[in-house]
């Protein structure tokens, strides 16, 4: 079988695959146009979605694409074909996402940025820190990553609430509500963590009326999709001290334009879409497992429903 690896890290992925699966012939690169002819002979692609979308627009048609990202938004664009199997990267981001969230939650409790400012100002900062124990964490998006994050946060003694498309009893959450319940649930949360995908239902849900319902001590963290946040409303909420701060990993336009207000908004930290990087070894393990399922005609892990968008 011929496999196309189309990714910025194509050389590493190709080497890992060839070492583990010598029966596979691998073509790899990071330029969709240059690989157009070779891709036509590859029924299976391991690709980052934006590159794969470019190939699809050139008329090349795969049987199956394994995304190297958890998100597959570029492949859902209007006019692109959907008559192929598409699988997301699943089961490999839980720990790195939790490490990201803990970094900024603990920094918030320990007032790290404030202490740094005090040091720059030659001021002895002996304010008492807070603790995660007893804090209420609202995880908006209780899919595979959200559930993994919840299980890893639970030992810190936090109270876990969730928001899902279909509310249900789900451990370790004390309760899980629907998106319609979000305005009520944010009122008591110390941390509001967005992990939602980009769908029509999740766009612009973090607006000024919602921020106005949050506690003035709450920290908002967006590691889901930039389209969920009304940027100007978040800026207004922070400038009015309506919430304590925001950590923004994902934006509507990336890289963020130099003139965007986020660069200069008080108590807003940008982290450059680095929350949950793909771990190469874990991705290749997932791909090999899905490849076995593909050859056997079995359901693959992370299969995308194009109608739902995830």
TrEMBL record:
What is the native source organism of this protein?
A: Pseudomonas triclosanedens
Instruction: Name the chain's protein.
Output: D-2-hydroxyacid dehydrogenase
Residue ranges of every copy of the D-isomer specific 2-hydroxyacid dehydrogenase NAD-binding domain listed in the record: 103-275
Q: Does the keyword Transferase apply?
A: no
Keywords attached to this Swiss-Prot or TrEMBL record, sorted alphabetically, are:
NAD, Oxidoreductase
Which Pfam families does this UniProt record tie to the protein? 2-Hacid_dh_C
């Amino acid at each position: 079988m011929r496999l196309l690896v189309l990714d910025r890290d194509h050389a590493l992925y190709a080497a890992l695959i060839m070492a583990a699966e010598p029966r596979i012939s691998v073509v790899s690169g990071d330029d969709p146009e240059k690989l157009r002819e070779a891709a036509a002979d590859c029924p299976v692609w391991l690709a980052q979605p934006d590159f794969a979308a470019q190939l699809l627009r050139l008329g090349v048609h795969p049987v199956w694409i394994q995304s190297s990202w958890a998100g597959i938004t570029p492949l859902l664009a209007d006019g692109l074909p959907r008559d192929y199997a598409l699988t997301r990267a699943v089961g490999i981001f839980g720990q790195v996402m939790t490490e990201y969230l803990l970094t900024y939650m603990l920094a918030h409790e320990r007032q790290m940025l404030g202490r740094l400012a005090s040091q720059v100002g030659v001021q002895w900062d002996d304010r008492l820190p807070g603790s995660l124990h007893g804090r209420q964490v609202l995880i908006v998006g209780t899919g595979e990553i959200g559930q993994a994050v919840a299980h890893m946060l639970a030992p810190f003694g936090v109270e876990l609430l969730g928001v899902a498309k279909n509310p249900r009893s789900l451990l370790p959450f004390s309760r899980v509500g629907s998106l319609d319940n979000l305005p009520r649930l944010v009122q008591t949360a110390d941390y509001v963590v967005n992990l939602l995908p980009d769908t029509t239902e999740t766009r612009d849900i973090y607006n000024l009326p919602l921020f106005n319902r949050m506690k003035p001590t709450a920290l908002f963290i967006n590691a889901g999709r930039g389209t969920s946040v009304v940027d100007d409303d978040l800026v207004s909420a922070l400038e009015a001290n309506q919430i304590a701060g925001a950590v923004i990993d994902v934006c509507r336009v990336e890289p963020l334009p130099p003139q965007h207000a986020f660069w200069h908004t008080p108590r807003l930290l940008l982290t450059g879409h680095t929350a949950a990087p793909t771990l190469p070894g874990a991705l290749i393990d997932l791909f090999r497992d899905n490849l076995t399922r593909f050859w056997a005609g079995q359901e693959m892990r992370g299969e995308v429903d194009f109608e739902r968008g995830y």
